[in-house]
Amino acid sequence: MTQPDPNLYDYWPYEGRPKIRWPGGKKLAFWIAPNIEYYEFDPPANPQRAPWPRPNPDITGYSQRDWGNRIGHWRLMDLMDKYDMRGSISLSIGLIDHHPEIIEACKARRWEFFSHGIYNTRFSYGMDEAQERAVIEDSIRSVEAATGERIRGYLAPALTHTERTLDLIAEHDFWYSCDLFQDDQPQPLKTKTGRLVSMPYSLEVNDVITYSVQGWSPERYTDVLIRHFDQLLKEGDTSGTVMCIPLHAYLVSQPHRIRVFEAALKHIAAHTDDVWITTGAEIAAHFREHYWDQSLADIEARGVTTGGTGFAPA
């Protein structure tokens, strides 16, 4: 039976929250999440969702995304180097086997990796608990073997979940989830174990939405990014905010888009006195250490706690 509310977090009004300050007294924590994904040409069918928008095998969709890994990612990496911005890679774990050269290039730049499932054409729908555990544990082992890094973040493959997903990643000592879009600050999630943070990862400024869904021009996308940033920086004067730009190299790195997009990074980089340019894991670590208990205490003091954990009311 479907619950009236998933009960993944408590309602927590924005106004009057305890003041967050990021390291160095910064007002806004900024991170970029390039999705480096691998799409199978002819993936197995899932009865709840087709792997491609068009009938598959979809040569057109496959080759467009392949362009992102062959050309687009390298172009985006050069641009981020120019502004001394490290990426937090939303990684299709299977890409480790298909394109190890990309992994090595990111590793050399000290970019963060977090899990985006094995392939972006394999969905969580229909998985039993053992299968979902296997995906999570394979993600941890594979990235650690390839990079020496223990992943701390999770974005479900193609944004597909089960009712167990958040509890399982919390149990495996993940620090943050990108799968919820309810806030502009980190928030504790209601999992059975662990300290799992809901990390701001915006769909509003995700290039898949702006280009593939909305059909915006590069100029409009850049204008929205700058206005989004300016508003969050202004509000960060009261309490520290978070801005993420989720990117897909097969979209943002197209030759007619990349230089227009650069104007947004240039604008953000000009505000480093007030902006902490960082990674998802570093934001989550700082929040968990300094603001987790304070946030829960504020939620409790407001009398808005509902008890229970995700999909399990009190």
Entry keywords:
single chain, 314 residues, alpha/beta, 11 helices
How would you describe this protein?
The chain has 314 residues and is α/β, with parallel strands linked by helices. The chain has eleven helices and nine strands. It has helices spanning 59-82, 95-98, 100-108, 129-147, 165-171, 207-213, 218-235, 249-252, 258-269, 280-290, 292-301, and strands spanning 28-36, 88-91, 112-115, 153-154, 176-177, 187-188, 197-198, 241-248, 275-277. Strand 1, helix 1 and strand 2 (88-91) form a beta-alpha-beta unit. Helix 7 runs parallel beside helix 9 (258-269). The chain starts with 27 loop residues before the first strand and ends in a 13-residue tail after the last helix. The model has no long low-confidence stretch (mean pLDDT 94).
In short:
By secondary structure, the chain is an alpha/beta fold. The protein contains 11 helices and 9 strands.
Strand and helix layout:
Elements: E1 28-36, H1 59-82, E2 88-91, H2 95-98, H3 100-108, E3 112-115, H4 129-147, E4 153-154, H5 165-171, E5 176-177, E6 187-188, E7 197-198, H6 207-213, H7 218-235, E8 241-248, H8 249-252, H9 258-269, E9 275-277, H10 280-290, H11 292-301
Parallel strand pairs: 1-2, 1-8, 1-9, 2-3, 4-5, 5-7
Antiparallel strand pairs: 6-7
User: Strand pairing plus helix content: what structural class?
Assistant: alpha/beta
Q: Care to count the β-strands?
A: 9
- Rg, alpha carbons: 19 Å
Main sheet overview: 5 strands, parallel
Strand fraction band?
5-15%
Q: Whole-number average pLDDT?
A: 94
What is the subunit organization of this protein? single chain
Order of helices and strands: EHEHHEHEHEEEHHEHHEHH
Shape: globular
Helix content: 25-40%
- Poorly predicted residue ranges: none
Distance between the termini: 16 Å
How many helices in DSSP terms?
Answer: 11
